[in-house]
Amino acid sequence: MEGAVRLRAGASKWDVREQVWDYLEASGLAAFPRPVHRRIPNFEGSHQACCSIKELDVFSRANEIKVDPDKPLEGVRLAALQARKTLLVPTPRLRTGLFNKIVPPSGATKEILRICATSQGVKEYSVPIGLDGKARVDLVVVGSVAVSEKGWRIGKGEGYADMEYAMMVSMGAVQKDTPVVTIVHDCQVVDIAEELLDDHDLTVDYILTPTRTIKTNCKRLKPQGIIWHKASYSAKGGLLVPKFC
Hints:
Number of strands: 12
Number of helices: 7
Helix content: 10-25%
Structural class: alpha/beta
Oligomer: single chain
Largest sheet: 8 strands, mixed
Radius of gyration: 17 Å
Distance between the termini: 29 Å
């Protein structure tokens, strides 16, 4: 399945996104919510891919894990809660701050933990953590539209994963060796031209698919903080949020 998306020569980032989204829909691999265009796409087999994270040493060693709120990452959020790890989920579109800490009720059943891992559960069982909050993230899990075996990543085009990572660097919540994992379908693993990458683009260290675990050994530097001169701004609930596109 890997390589099923054949990128056109000279493809732009947006071309890559469109080709992946189109392929997922046309091949019957796309899963709820549909259509997957302009989203971090959910796909058939996402839960199986998520379960693979439990086999990674970086997951076993982690105490505090940041997982994006995208639907295909729901299985990772559940795995973190079941392992009694501290789970941080970014506020969608950074509307009211940076993180929500998921706090399951005392004695939560397996079913309650499943609910906590969903977008609705994040709303109901979380407490906000602001930019001045004391977080020490041991593992970062992000969604992707496309990713290469070298660890080069393309998101949905709004820059939030890149910005969240840059903000975590600025607040000391991640270190230069904090591992980054992404969960994708095999068909989303494509050859990405390095010239498409910008300084603010987040790279990944592990790629989990329904059939493979790929360690990228990526040597490209991750964002070292917010690159202010490349950021545009939007007001979200009184918070001035830098954006990368």
